[in-house]
Amino acid sequence: MRGLLTDAARTLVPPQGDRHGPLPPLMLGLTVVTGLIDAVTYLALGHVFVANMTGNVVFLGFALAGAPGLSAPASLVSMASFLAGALTGGRFATRYAAHRGRMLTAATAVQTVLVAGAVLAVALGHDEVTGPVKYSLVVLLGIAMGLQNAVARRLGVPDLTTTVLTLTLTGLAADSVPAGGAAPRPGRRILSVLAMFLGALVGALLLRHASLLLVVALALVLLAAALVAVRRHWSSDADWTRPQS
User: What is the reported pTM?
Assistant: First the structure.
């Protein structure tokens, strides 16, 4: 238990000289954003994901088989948007490969603009999910999540992919002491799962009791806060900003 708490504390407040610097808490914040956005797209847009492409591939198969309540076009548009975002993220990762702080800053800035566009689309639609609003959100949020996923992959912070938890949960169980493993980073893995859960829970509650606009606006606020936090490190020459071997 002490080791788990220590690992969690190091994730939330990394010690001076940590090889990933401020990246872990920032990535946890982005994981919360993913939970919020998945709540929006799955619950409000008709069972489509923009961050979880495994789900979309499965939904596409179900839709083509004639399963009710699913949309093959929505899944295809989401996957195409995600791929466009991942391509953009790959370009950012290449351009800022020598400085991880600048890489995350540039990507988060673009994400913030995309989610701001989603807020505007919902506001102009008066919080109603019409066809144009639905596909505007799928495209904007899909690009944002593809971008986030690609950059998180290149940043290489273990167990903080920000959009996918399958490998995190697998590692939590397969590397545990009962499984004969050394249980590396249990606190970080648990925090990652909790961050996604928190975002999804808050998003679902706000959709039920408040409005779609409020959920998307909250995601925008969190992204803006992450942007302000990471922008401070644009000129940093700390060890964590360098590519990790």
Answer: 0.94
